[in-house]
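My current task is to audit a protein record that another person submitted. Alongside the sequence sits a line of tokens, each denoting a local backbone shape. Where you disagree with what is written, explain briefly why. This is what I was given:
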Amino acid sequence: MSYTALSFTLLFVLGTMLVSVWQKLGLEKDIIVGTVRSAIQLLAVGYVLQFIFKSDQVIYVIVIILFMISVAAWNAAKRGKGLRGLVWRIGLAIATMELLMMGILLSLHIIEATPQYIIPISGMTIGSAMVVSGLFINHIKHEIQQSKGEIETLLSLGATVPQAVQEVRKRSVKFSMIPTIDGMKTVGLVQLPGMMTGMIIAGADPVVAVRYQILIVFSFTASAAITSMLLSVLSYRLFFTPDLRLKQIVEQG
């Protein structure tokens, strides 16, 4: 695709902005900022990946994966305003998931140990883990506030903190997994995922493209579940003071 042809896709953005103006939604600034940022970021990543793929150095792969984990953790942690130490906990959960996923994929020779495979698959699974982390934190905050009386009653009756928040953690993990599970149920019927579509457009055999997409779908599901469950273990104590009283947490959408 030429840059000239690519520039015509701005018509979609312009159309969206005109609808926003017409309906007085006030989204024009956000749309412009998002358009510019996404274009610059993707072009920059394209050139960075081009350099990494040509150099084929392990250190560059490690650096870019650590960078992706850091950005994902920072972004997801914004859902937990007022919870100190949340960023590194999310980062640890995502990093652990990444080590497990890549360890399995590489040790079983499911993918080749090259930057062309490791970086894109890592990016997709880390992105999925980021979304799940944000959903989990947002929901557990709401659940703890709604179940405050129940939790305090359990604590007063001698329950430990893990016992008092067990149901809250369970509901939050299930909630964070809803988009991933719904996506699994409808993939190929409602949506044709990006990786498969891209490979088909590039000329790959549709059956081969589907096999790679199945790999991604299963990886997404595993990464989402691992990250959410790890985060539920690492983060629940952030909602309590050292003397086991619930903190007053600011609700955030």
User: Anything to note?
Assistant: The chain has a mean pLDDT of 86. DSSP finds eleven helices and no strands in the chain.
